[in-house]
Amino acid sequence: MASDVGRPGAGSALKGRADLRDQPAGRPAARPGAPAAGPGAASRKPAAWIWALPPVALLALFFLYPLALVVQQSLQPDTGGTSVQPYADVFASQAFREALWTTVWLAVAATVGCLVLGFVLALVIAFVPFPGARAVSKFIDVFLSFPSFLITLALLFVYGSVGMANGLWTGVTGAAEGPFQFLTTPWGVLLAEITYFTPFVIRPLLAAFSQLDTAQLEAASSLGARAPRIIRQVILPEALPALAAGGSLVLVLCLNEFGIVLFTGAKGVTTLPMLVYSKAILESDYPGACVVAVVNVLISVGLYGLYRVVSRRAGA
User: Fold this and answer.
1) Which of 28, 83, 118, 292 would bridge with 201, disulfide CB 3.0–4.6 Å?
2) What pLDDT band is residue 99 in, cutting at 50, 70 and 90?
3) Is 95 left (phi over 0), alpha (psi -120 to 50) or beta?
């Protein structure tokens, strides 16, 4: 074989091959005339945290800053200075303790009622064939967008002091007033909350039931299991994650519900949001109102964290 050394350009070709051999493995050779990538090339690219600045700034401006003002106001008594005295005054008041108890028991009772009623209705919609089942399922999605005071107004038209039910009663019996006077009591608030928040339980249950293997139901039925046993041993275990997620969400929403309590006009029913309204608007006690608001926010954030944990584990 003839040697390439004597040919024109052989020296440059050999030099080029030697340069290729000197290149580190896995790194492409630089193109002739291309600018070398210096150590500052990567720093010229925008850092990932820069893109997070706009949403963080908006969050701080429209949420964190007002919340910080509320916390600051809760530490500034009318006498001036900075003190925890507003917290001591609010925690020592009978009105705060009653509002806290009313808020908790109404929220827990409404959550239990929503779980029971939502589970029964979801069973009927998912497993009992009837005309319009699909339309009912779609209506539940629309119902979730309704404001809470709209449901309360509807209940007032039906069960209010001058509502349809009392009007029919007085028209038939000639009585001065009807027997349905519960809407302005805690039971009326409870009924309104269960009516409004039950679809928040039905929706995840229907999603869970849609993933249920119908072969399990058919096998249980063929083995002679009755409907209550099938529900208890087959359907309920599959529905527990959705029940936990829906119940956690309803509990958080009920703790912060304001419109239902306000529009029912229930006298003697004071929840934490109503106490904030009363102290700020009626009594002009802004430090006290901010203290109650901070307590309400802390409870809500804690329960929301619980809701996220439950939802993550349930896959909802």
Assistant:
1) 118
2) very high
3) alpha
Q: Using 50, 70 and 90 to split pLDDT, how confident is the model at 141?
A: confident
Dist CA 194 CA 207 (whole Å):
20
Counting Cβ atoms within 10 Å, is residue 31 exposed (0-12), middle (13-18) or buried (19+)?
A: exposed
Q: Rounded to whole angstroms, how far apart are CA atoms 270 and 173?
A: 35
Per-residue model confidence (pLDDT) at position 311: 66
Which DSSP letter does residue 81 get?
S
Residue identified by tokens 């009837």 is 130
Identify the CA nearest to 201 among candidates 158, 243, 147, 152: 243
Check whether 13 has a pLDDT greater than 60: no
Average pLDDT taken over every residue of the chain:
79
- Rounded mean pLDDT of 259-283? 86
* C-alpha span between 193 and 111 (Å, rounded): 9
Q: Which two tokens stand for residue 100?
A: 């806290």
Residue 255 has pLDDT above 50, yes or no: yes
- Encode burial over 264-294: b for 16+ CB neighbours within 10 A, e otherwise: bebeebbbbbbbbbbbbeeeebbbbbbbbbb
Q: Is the pLDDT of residue 46 over 70?
A: no
Beta carbons within 8 Å of 78's beta carbon, 6+ residues apart = 287
CA separation for the pair 44, 54 (Å, rounded): 20
Place of tokens 């083995």: 223
Could you tell me the two tokens for 22? 């000197």
| In the block, residue with structure tokens 């089942």 | 133
Q: Residue 169, class by beta-carbon neighbours within 10 Å (0-12 exposed, 13-18 middle, 19+ buried)? A: middle
Q: How far apart are CA 278 and CA 1, in angstroms?
A: 103
Name the residue type at position 312. R
How many whole angstroms separate alpha carbon 161 and alpha carbon 156? 8
Helix then strand then coil, % of the chain, to nearest 5: 70, 0, 30
Distance of CA 84 to the CA centre of its chain: 31
What mean pLDDT do residues 220-232 have? 76
